[in-house]
Specification:
This protein is of the alpha/beta class. The protein is 54% helix and 12% strand. The chain has a five-stranded parallel sheet, sandwiched between helices. The chain starts with a helix and ends in a 9-residue tail after the last helix. The relative contact order is 0.10. It binds one RNA strand of 75 nucleotides through strand 1, strand 9, strand 10, helix 12 and helix 16.
RNA sequence: GCCCCUGUAGUUCAAUGGAUAGAACUGCGGACUUCUAAGCCGUCGAUGUAGGUUCGAUUCCUGCCAGGGGCACCA
């Protein structure tokens, strides 16, 4: 409808002798002011040195001549807004359409035949999976699904730091531990990392030991260290895999720093003199020569060790060579922002055709309401513990319901994950998220569980309807159009907007509005009522709502439970 | 010092240059007791600051203030 209407407005303008570049069509904040609204009259009034209201009236009569299907009336309001009111048939048709499209409802073809690679999560073996990884995962998974809904083939990638000082610190802790390591968990390895990290900062002797281990990890010259390394890498990666399963992520690629280092190093060395330069014994990139806002970074140290920058070069080139994506998206915290600009500039000089295809999405950092997180103080909130706490709260809430233990476990998992994911995805990506367990993991109001709960209420109506053998029909339609209908059809537009801005929170905001509209409808209307001729249409409406909520939650990476 | 991000109600967040700046939580006040009350209805309450551009600015530009991040061998 939106595109069609824009075309009609453009041709109306053309008839009036105005060549319109872009036409802005929006949904008025208040549904009373129409279903769509445009400001073109105000925008072009000056150009024609005419009164916006008069121009609006002219445009209105041009549009009325067209007799657009599904349009009930056109009005001029305010300073010169043209408001469009859709016909009841339009809403009924969109409900029908939703039930026809089912799981495909909301998809578009913006990225038809395109391939998009999304890299996210990036936890490091030997270190805990912390809240930041949870954030990146929630955002990256949602972006992946939004891109998928926009018609692209999505390739999910994870990039993990399996070499470097953090590994040496953990191994130092493991070696230093009096207990045998063989049956220990990823959690325990995380604790050893914290001890090693502490040791590194507090005693030059230990620092020296850890540096020594780091070298051995690189060149694999020490049998004992190799054994611990292989064991620890597996244990932590397996633990991450469990978390991905809970979160609902399945990666197509796992890239490791150990593999990217030699690839990147080769590329960097081949481009010395062209892109990179030698300076004080190190290989550096003077990005400020290309963009004054960027800065110089070291890519290979004076000791010849490739840094993170170099590995990133290797990773970027590897991604393009393996999959040749039309768009390559990376999701990380904002702290990587400036760094990434420099690296991407360097890559662009080597491969100009990659430049416009690389996108870096940054999100804020998650911080604790009660002071800073620090691995040394031991007040790190790991992703696992957070997930577990959230699930425990849900389990407690459903404990007295008549459900089997398996059902309760599943609900705890699905709703617990939802509470967390929603609290991350509800806000735009720019700002930090202050994590306060009591407040941030909310189960009422603006929250994931609220959306799920609303879907569950709809689902139980549908289940009952099915049992009683009543079905959806469009024969008798109530006179009044509900807000629910006015919100439902907008879903597809919201998905498009989420993609063009790469902002999942638009979905979250929309779903909350949708749930609220449904709950109002639910509270005021008895839906199952055999003596009510409108009952069949209302059932269709409930079904359309349930489908839309389910598809929307999917885009947030959240499952829709049947009961809760 | 330079660069990037962010400042909206008591709190956590929305608002594609537009109409009376929306929600949620909290506070206060209600309804029904029916298909799940994790729900519904009402109410109190906000654009950091000073300019500029515009018919119109929370949104764009500039200065200032505040918070976070980054700036040569960590990742």
């Amino acid at each position: 409808m939106k595109e069609k209407l824009i075309q009609h407005i453009k041709s109306a303008l053309k008839n009036l002798g105005i060549e319109a570049g872009s036409v802005i069509l929006e949904h008025p904040a208040d549904l009373k002011m129409g279903d769509y609204s445009t400001n073109v009259a105000m925008a072009y009034a000056k150009q024609l040195s005419t009164n916006p209201k008069e121009l609006a009236e002219k445009i209105k009569s041009e549009i009325e001549k067209e007799n657009i299907k599904g349009m009930q009336k056109v009005e001029v309001a305010g300073a010169g807004f043209i408001n469009f009111y859709l016909h009841h048939d339009f809403f009924v048709d969109s409900v029908k359409d939703i039930l026809k499209q089912k799981d495909n409802w909301g998809k578009n073809e913006i990225l038809k035949d395109k391939k998009v690679m999304v890299e996210y999560t990036q936890p490091n073996p030997f270190k805990p999976f912390h809240i930041g990884h949870l954030m990146s995962n929630a955002i990256g998974e949602s972006i992946s699904r939004i891109v998928e809904f926009s018609g692209a083939k999505t390739v999910r990638a994870n990039y993990q730091g399996d070499v470097g000082p953090h590994v040496a610190k953990a191994i130092w802790g493991i070696l230093d531990s009096v207990e045998p390591y063989e049956n220990k968990s990823a959690l325990w390895i995380g604790e050893q990392y914290a001890r090693g990290s502490d040791a590194y900062d507090n005693d030059p002797k230990w620092k020296e030991e850890i540096n020594e281990i780091n070298k051995k990890v690189y060149d694999r010259s020490d049998e004992k260290i190799n054994k611990i390394y292989d064991w620890g890498r597996k244990v932590t990666l397996d633990a991450f895999e469990e978390i991905y399963k809970t979160l609902g992520t399945k990666f197509d690629y796992y890239f490791f720093e150990s593999e990217m280092a030699p690839i990147g190093e080769k590329i960097v060395r081949e481009n010395i003199g062209k892109v990179f330069e030698e300076s004080e014994g190190a290989i550096v990139f003077h990005a400020e020569n290309y963009d004054p806002k960027l800065h110089t970074r070291v890519f290979i140290t004076s000791l010849g060790i490739p840094l993170y920058e170099t590995k990133e070069v290797g990773l970027t080139v590897t991604k393009f060579e393996k999959e040749n994506p039309d768009i390559s998206i990376i999701t990380t915290a904002i702290e990587q922002g400036e760094y990434m600009k420099v690296v991407q500039k360097a890559v662009s000089l080597i491969h100009p055709d990659y430049e416009s295809r690389m996108k870096h999405i940054t999100h804020g950092m998650m911080r604790l309401a009660s002071g800073k997180m620090s691995s040394r103080k031991g007040n790190v909130v790991t992703g696992e513990s957070l997930l577990k706490d959230s699930m425990d709260v849900v389990y407690e809430k459903v404990s007295d319901r008549e459900l089997s233990i398996e059902e309760k476990d599943e609900i705890a998992k699905v709703v617990g994950v939802s509470a967390l994911k929603y609290s991350i995805l509800r806000s735009s990506l720019g700002s930090d998220i202050v994590y306060d367990f009591e407040k941030s993991i909310s189960f009422e109001g603006d929250s994931g569980p609220y959306l799920q709960y609303t879907a569950v209420r709809a689902n139980s109506i549908l289940k009952k309807v099915e049992a009683e053998g009543i079905c959806a029909a469009y024969k008798d339609i109530p006179n009044e159009v509900t807000n629910l209908e006015k919100v439902l059809y907008q879903f597809g537009e919201v998905v498009e907007r989420s993609y063009t801005q790469l902002e999942p929170h638009h979905i979250a905001t929309y779903l909350t509005e949708l749930a609220s509209a449904f709950n109002t409808f639910y509270g005021n209307t008895q839906i199952i009522n055999k003596s009510d001729p409108y009952a069949n249409y209302r059932i269709a409406l409930v079904e359309a709502f349930h489908q839309t909520m389910k598809n929307g939650l999917y885009l947030l990476g959240i499952k829709t439970p049947g009961k809760m």
